[in-house]
Amino acid sequence: MKYALLMYSVEKSWAEADEATREKVYAAHGRFSELLASRDAERGGEELALSNTATTVRVQGGEHLMTDGPYAETAEQLGGFYLVEARDLDEALEFARHLATVEDIIEVRPVVEHPAG
Amino acid sequence: MSLVEAAFREHRGPLMATLVAELRSFDLAEESLQDAFAAAAQQWPVDGVPRRPAGWLLSVARRRAVDRRRREETLVRYLPLLITSPGEAPERDDSLALLFACCHPALGQESRVALTLRFVAGLTVPEIARLFLVPDTTMAARLTRAKQKIRTAGIPVRFPAPDDLPGRVSAVLSVLYLLFTEGYRSYRDEVAGEAIRLARMLPAEPETTGLLALMLLQHSRRRARRRDGQLVLLADQDRTEWNAAEIAEALILLATPGVEDGPYRLQALIAAHHAVDQKDWVSIAALYQQLDDLTGSPVVRLNRAVAVLEAYGPQAALELLEGLTEQMPRNHHLPAARGEMLRRLGDHEAAAREFTHAAELAPTATERDFLIKKAETGTG
């Protein structure tokens, strides 16, 4: 089964992190990628730019309404995601536990897989 | 009881577990197993009971599952896996795998209990709804949502990996204890008994053994704790009505010292003191102190204070109750206990105030009358 591991963090601390801290976090993600690779589990993933660079678009009264900023203004923001292939939820949660040592909150969401054709 | 009913009682649980593990669908497993029992009800009285009833039922259920899936025209690629030789009995007991799936930490506590009652213990939806005092439709919707999550999120129906085991066992234990206390509270002995049966199936770890002993000790009093529909207090129970075999089993389970006593084992050790009628209040107070340190629960603190009252007197006990009122302002046991402690200190006026306050908070008329009387006499 495919799962998305959505990573939420307190953005402020990441924005204010010094170079050494950032290097440590990236190194941890490197190790996490290696773990996924060793299980042939990595199916993609990205780091997202800070939420103050986001633009939110919605339709209201037939018009496209654009607002500056993320959909929800919370302290924790979606900062990136991995797509993983796991045997079941237990394996996906095992990956999430590894990731939770680096990022604040990991939300594990099953990916809906539509039959081909 | 007919032969099919007997087979249903004996084999339903394990067969359900095997089918859920194989089919990865609660609904399909349930429907197919119902089909198989319906077929048995028709055929067994005519053809006789098959040599291996469980194997017979399993192969019929599997065939029906294949039929149903074929009708649904989905998952066709799994069909060859399901067709096995007729009469083959389940190779392993999947009940534990099913129990671990129903109690998965990814599910909410309410869902875990409902799923366990429905699919492991085999209660009907209306029965579970009555147990939790919610409408049938609410319980049915809760079960549907939970089954959906199991399927969609990929919650596995198997014994957990060794690394996951401690956390997963403790999730199962808390569901089993809740199941037990719900059964106990509502005088549904078979529900409480089911929790005990399931606890016996788990690997014998200290907390599992502790919980099993705790449940056995409480369950052993089921015949004595009710008279003419009324609750009988522990002190007033006819001890000859207690189940001696269950108490003995619990005491043997507790005789092996634990490496580090967990909350269930500590509660069981306390219950054991009450079961053998040796009111060693100093030991009981020491056990409550350990439990208090571990859990930080205000209810435990209150019970500890009552044990301390008997072991060391009212002054030490009163000190333990400080700050508890803020934590449980509506609990009538707290002012009742404080009243008793003040009475023993000789402060009858303050004691009467506490008993009156307790009476105001008491949930039942019996308790209210009892507390009002204490407030009036001032002597207990």
Automatic annotation (TrEMBL), chain A:
Transmembrane segments: none
Domain of life: Bacteria
InterPro entries reported in the protein's UniProt record: Dimeric_a/b-barrel, YCII
SUPFAM superfamilies: Dimeric alpha+beta barrel (SSF54909)
YCII-related domain ranges (all copies): 1-113
Family: Belongs to the YciI family.
Designated name of the protein: YciI family protein
Lineage: Bacteria, Bacillati, Actinomycetota, Actinomycetes, Micromonosporales
UniProtKB/TrEMBL annotation, chain B:
Domain RNA polymerase sigma-70 region: 8-72
Coiled-coil positions: none
Keywords: Sigma factor, Transcription, Transcription regulation
Iron-sulfur in keyword set: no
Domain RNA polymerase sigma factor 70 region 4 type, first and last residues per copy: 100-150
Gene3D superfamilies to which the protein is assigned, alphabetical: 1.10.1740.10, Tetratricopeptide repeat domain (1.25.40.10), Winged helix-like DNA-binding domain superfamily/Winged helix DNA-binding domain (1.10.10.10)
InterPro entries documented for this protein: DUF6596 (IPR046531), RNA_pol_sigma70_r2 (IPR007627), RNA_pol_sigma70_r4_t2 (IPR013249), RNA_pol_sigma_r2 (IPR013325), RNA_pol_sigma_r3/r4-like (IPR013324), TPR-like_helical_dom_sf (IPR011990), WH-like_DNA-bd_sf (IPR036388)
Pfam families: DUF6596, Sigma70_r2, Sigma70_r4_2
Domain DUF6596 span(s) in chain numbering: 168-255
Family statement drawn from the similarity comment of this UniProt entry: Belongs to the sigma-70 factor family. ECF subfamily.
Protein name: RNA polymerase subunit sigma-24
Taxonomic lineage of the native organism: Bacteria, Bacillati, Actinomycetota, Actinomycetes, Micromonosporales
